[in-house]
Amino acid sequence: MPDQSAEPLARLAVTTPWHPTLQRPFAGSFVQATTAAVRGLFDRVDLYNTEDWTGPADPVQAQLVGKAYAALTSGPSRRIDFTARWTDEGYWVTDIPTPVTPKRDYATWAHSHESALAPVLPGGRFEADIVHGHVGIYGGWLAHRFARPDARIVVTEHASFLGRILGQPRSRALYAEVMDRADAVLCVSEKLRRELAGEFPGHTGKIHVVPNAVDIEAMPVRPKPVTELHKWIYVGKVAAAKGVPELVEAFGVAAKDEPALRLTILGSGPLVDPLRARTAELGVADRVVFHDAVPPQRVFEFLHAHDLLVHPSKSETFGMTTVEAVGSGMPVLVTRCGGPEETLGGLDGVAGLLIDVSDDPDVIVDGFRRLAQQMAGLDPDRARAELIGRYGARAVAQRLAGIYGVGDSAERNWAPAREQA
Length: 421
Fold this sequence. Notes:
Blueprint: E1 11-16, H1 29-38, E2 44-54, H2 59-73, E3 85-86, E4 92-100, H3 106-117, E5 130-134, H4 135-146, E6 152-157, H5 162-166, H6 169-181, E7 184-187, H7 190-199, E8 207-209, E9 231-235, H8 244-257, E10 262-266, H9 272-281, E11 288-291, H10 299-304, E12 308-311, H11 320-327, E13 332-335, H12 340-343, E14 352-355, H13 361-373, H14 380-391, H15 393-404
């Protein structure tokens, strides 16, 4: 733990709806990595994780749950006391279960997070010089509501559902308040920056592209380089929006001509059972393995045991899985779905191959066949080094230091990522 007797430099509070917990060990690893990357800039870092706990849809029942929760967590006779825990990453975390309804009413959810957080904060506010909120709704809203008037507020937007938030008038109004109060708004991709700047043109000057940190330096590199693309793997939610149905169809086509092909689908989601049935219909059930999601530290065991990450998502704001695969020395076949063409900018044909977003499985099949012919041109060492320079913990921490106004980078003039190529 840090020396609490030292003269304070500055304190950082981080507020997020996503962070690994016992219940959800895979949630928010990108927030975890970014917070760990900047912990050395501050005397103390406190992270407040307001985690959605979905309750009843019935309004009366939901109101009763809210009253019971308030009685348990606030007031002089409260029975639940939220205590911060020290993490191996070097900062304090307070986990705060937050009852929400199944209805995706983002303004109501934001106020639910606000109500859950309020009694946890000493004095009813963040006692921090800088408050970093992850996603405008909810982390940004909580930063706005509970930061000291003199505190600097930084908001990172990485929600793939930003359009739905801004499409609801009430949640858009809350987001507008966040934009007014924030000192800097960071988007993890140029695609998100354009979307946010288009919605709030008066705040364009404070909207920048800064990715979440990815601790690529600590990622284990596969012991042997890939020489053939026989073992495919997909890592992520098994859902239509991730292009997994097209992946299964594409594998069924490619497997007819390639007897050595195998596919592992690593993750959970609503389409696991239907897609398992579909592999049987395609006659490839014995060549496709469905595996439940595993803790982040175990993902690399699976990456190292396979030859090619196939990620045919329809839309991504960043593409963490792709970065992890390339960081581990693995070729990738990934769609130009927003984030990946930025994260792999200049590395098409070096780290793997980018393909178009499509509902046609033949696009994946064609990409696989072209990549198999271009194996000699891949340079995994160069790709890893490039990504470390862009998204490594040290690189992102230096840029955040400039935005926070602390550390060795405080005096530098900071420019958005698109101007630092």
